Amino acid sequence: MRIAQISPLWERVPPFRYGGTELIVKLVTDELVRRGHEVSLFASGDSITTAKLRSVHPQALRLDPKIKEPSIYEQMMLAEVYQQAHHFDIIHSHVGYNCLSYCSFVKTPTVHTMHGIFTPDNEKIFRKFAWQPFISISEAQREPRLGLNYIHTVYNGIDTAVYPFYPEPTQPAYLAFVGRISPEKGPVQAIKIARAVGLPLKMAGKIDVVDKEFYTEQVEPLIDGEQIQYLGEISHEDKVKLLGGASITLFPINWREPFGLVMIESMATGTPVIGMGLGSVSEVIAHGKTGFVCHCLEKMIEVLPDAMKIDRQTCREYVVSRFSVESMTDEYEKAYAMVL
Amino acid sequence: MRIAQISPLWERVPPFRYGGTELIVKLVTDELVRRGHEVSLFASGDSITTAKLRSVHPQALRLDPKIKEPSIYEQMMLAEVYQQAHHFDIIHSHVGYNCLSYCSFVKTPTVHTMHGIFTPDNEKIFRKFAWQPFISISEAQREPRLGLNYIHTVYNGIDTAVYPFYPEPTQPAYLAFVGRISPEKGPVQAIKIARAVGLPLKMAGKIDVVDKEFYTEQVEPLIDGEQIQYLGEISHEDKVKLLGGASITLFPINWREPFGLVMIESMATGTPVIGMGLGSVSEVIAHGKTGFVCHCLEKMIEVLPDAMKIDRQTCREYVVSRFSVESMTDEYEKAYAMVL
Fold first, then answer.
1. DSSP string covering B19-75, please?
2. What is the number of CB-based contacts under 8 A between chain A and chain B?
3. Residue A132 near residue A335, CB atoms below 8 Å
4. How confident is residue A24, by pLDDT bands cut at 50, 70 and 90?
5. So what's the pLDDT on residue B248?
6. Which of A42, A55, A66, A76 is the mutation pick for testing B, counting most B CBs within 10 A?
7. Where does the chain cross the membrane (chains A, B) (predicted)?
8. Same domain, yes or no, for B35 and B149?
9. Which residues pair with B112 in a beta bridge?
10. Is there a single domain that holds both residue B20 and residue B34?
11. Do B73 and A98 touch (CB under 8 A)?
12. Same domain, yes or no: B139 and B279
């Protein structure tokens, strides 16, 4: 099949460090090539892929200080994709609402993976193009009131080969928290849980500019460097070690997470996850088997001893069978077949 | 002829106070309707026009505090215009590069009036669509190195009826400066000229946030409220009175002005203009007849006594014959005929 993949241009494919969307684009694209498809990847020129790379700029826009109007580059890319639509059997967009206004000019269908969240502004353009074929990354991500034509849910997948299995957690035991240090991700809640159960907590993740004040005022005062440690932004290797060595990974979110990649990253290393039952969490954690889905902080504390008894091999196998690149790509191939 | 006019959505058509592009859109649109064309105006929902108004939002985006992502509304508008392109004989865009990525999907031609300036980012998309039919608002605005397919120059026009003629300047004599208080517009140079010739200077114009520091540091200390007066932002009526009552309007710019509406506003009231010969200035002022085009500050000072002797009726007639709504619309009709 001749497939065009459209990635955001802000970050390279794959991303240097953070960038969930660009990581998924990388994995799907290269796996589709491996399966014999003829794939064109529209992405920043420094992207690395086995597909045919098509770029309007040599660098990830985020890394080029000369660029003041990034949306212009996306317009150029989308014009290129859709002007050449007849060369493709299907177009797979990862750029959210940005390509909606182009897809009705061509005969080649576009499928849209919804990586982002809805906002009062973007809801309006989604409603206008509600008939387009959308793919959600969890059932919870869907907003039934918008009436979008969802044709399938495709869970994100990871390359399980780069997440080695840790049969036993490190001793002495500790809890892990990996994610942006922002109110939605619940770092303060993670600290409360760790204090309540008397276990060390190792935290890692970036602090966005908008979250600087939240960090200084609400998180930093609770970090003692002993029981509660913050390791800053860490590499993939350090993240795997941190997650794999943990007894439990905490995911005490305060918002409707659309997917939550860190949950599958943790389970892939064998570490169960205790998550707050918002958004996708109950779809990603197999309650009682690979972790626990709770609805309040007290419950998260209460289930912790049981969670530590969970079989780590089961966690690993669960991710390999349900959240691998292969299973994700199987589902995308099904979605392509549905629209053709 | 069935014509679609596309306006920016940020400001209403016509603009509440400032907004050169939206004012031109208003004048051309209504004049085309008066001439019997079937015109659809794509603009904010609070626009006032005799054409058929088509909107994706009830208000100018600038005035709606709930709007965080204005570009989404422009995407919705452009999708609507181009999906219905077959209902129009011609599409006339005033939104710069934003519609370039759409126009090649339809058979109806688009003509693009270039109201804005070129930037390192937008130059790239203009080059990509260089074959599209462009209209410059002055010869000087063109950038030959970009190789754009300019089909015509159409000077901006004004509704001369709302600029009454002042046969004599007010006594005691004064100089006028109307424009943004920004380095490009040369308010400091205007003050230097006024001081050199010993005439009062009345200045009016808005101060943008980015120019606040420039104003406080370089302009404000020179304003004494007597010889040098700053009147702030003023209404259309006050602007006409200020320009019409002046002996001379100064236009001592420091940048390549693409058109410079205030020059024709001043001449319409009968007041000659002394301008710095950058950008469009030598095309808009009839040197020696309706003002003077100079190349340094000293020359602007030197020609002032001669400029005060210029016949004010000639200034008025010059604008009526070359820079009226009617002459502008004549030229746009010629441009439409060229692409059809």
1. -HHHHHHHHHHHHHHHTT-EEEEE--TT---SSEEE-SSSS-GGG-TT-S-HHHHHH
2. 77
3. no
4. very high
5. 98
6. A76
7. none
8. yes
9. B93, B134
10. yes
11. no
12. no
Is B102 in Cβ contact with A69 (below 8 Å)?
no
Q: What is the pLDDT of residues B92-112, one digit of tens each?
A: 999 999 999 999 999 999 999
Query: Are residues A216 and A133 both part of a single domain?
Result: no
Average pLDDT over residues B147-167: 97
> Across the interface, do A76 and B125 touch by the CB < 8 Å criterion?
yes
Residue B314 and residue B331 in one domain: no
Task: Indicate yes or no: CB of B72 within 8 angstroms of CB of A125.
Answer: yes
Confidence tier at A216 by pLDDT (50, 70, 90): very high
- Count of residues making up chain A: 340
- B76 contacts in A (CB within 8 Å)? 101, 124-125, 128
Interface contact B120-A73, CB threshold 8 A: no
What is the reported pTM?
0.90
Contacting residues of B for A128, CB less than 8 Å apart:
76, 79
Q: Say if residue A101 is in the same domain as residue A207.
A: no
As for how many domains chain B has, the answer is: 2
3-class DSSP state of B6: strand
Q: What pLDDT shows up at residue B232?
A: 94
Q: Most A CBs within 10 Å: which of B74, B121, B210, as the mutation test of the A interface?
A: B121
Contacts of B196 (CB under 8 A, 6+ apart): B301
Q: Nearest Cβ partner of B121 from A72, A83, A119?
A: A72
Whether B105 contacts chain A with CB within 8 A:
yes
At A301-327, the pLDDT tens digits run 999 999 999 999 999 999 999 999 999
> Over pLDDT 90: what percentage of chain A?
95
Same domain flag for B64 and B21:
yes
Percent of chain A topping pLDDT 70: 100
Q: How high is the pLDDT of residue A17?
A: 74
3-state secondary structure of A268: helix
Q: Can you give the residue range of the structural domain that contains B50? A: 2-157+324-339
Return left, alpha or beta for B92; rule: phi > 0 is left, psi -120 to 50 is alpha, else beta. beta
Q: What is the CATH number of the domain that holds B335?
A: 3.40.50.2000
With an 8 Å Cβ cutoff, is B107 touching chain A?
Answer: no
Residues A172 and A222 in one domain: yes
Contacts of B97 in chain A (CB under 8 A): 72, 75
pLDDT digits (tens, 9 = 90+) for B270-322: 999 999 999 999 999 999 999 999 999 999 999 999 999 999 999 999 999 99
The total of other beta-carbon atoms located within 10 Å of residue A210's CB is 9
Residue B42: Cβ-neighbour burial (10 angstroms; 0-12, 13-18, 19+): buried
Chain A residues whose CB is inside 8 A of the B56 CB are 124
